[in-house]
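Q: Here's a chain of 187 amino acids. Please give me its 3D structure as tokens.
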Amino acid sequence: YIDALLKRKPVGEKVAIIGSGGIGFDVAEFITNPHTQLPVPIDEFLAHWGIDKAHTAPGGTMAPVRRAPTRTVTMLQRTESRPGKMLGLTTGWVVRSELKSRGVRNITGATYNRIDGDGLHITIDGEDALIPADTVIVCAGQESNNALYNDLTAAGVPATVIGGAEKSAGLDALGAIRQGTEAALAL
């Protein structure tokens, strides 16, 4: 996924994303972003979310202006649980809503069989299926990397491992911020 985020490799028009955790959702949002400029110009942002800056519409809202999706994106996960269930309560609904408006499809309970020139071959509910894709992005199986911690402690420099370097499963930004704050306060 890092190659897609850093634009080191091209992302095609038909994309399968393996993994529906926080990183999968972030990648899906990034590759389906309809805005041509970042940061998004304020008038474009307001139109996208249906905010009437002139307050001429009741409640200051109007119909959102949405651009047609330029990619077909399917997110897949092995578990049957709700996709993105670990997204934050205050922001998760926005991300899910935004991806739904961009036509991103979610598949749960998938078994990944193989990737070939036709796309991603899966088994779902005992039936073989093909997800047509010219790009497959893997957003699963992150591993902790605390090499810097090891180097620092070997050099006698006090260090603390926090966040994804400590535990990559179920990455939790709020928990990492808490750990960082606690480590800073302990100095």
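Q: Can you summarize the key feature?
A: The beta strands are 14-18, 72-76, 105-107, 110-116, 119-124, 127-132, 135-138.
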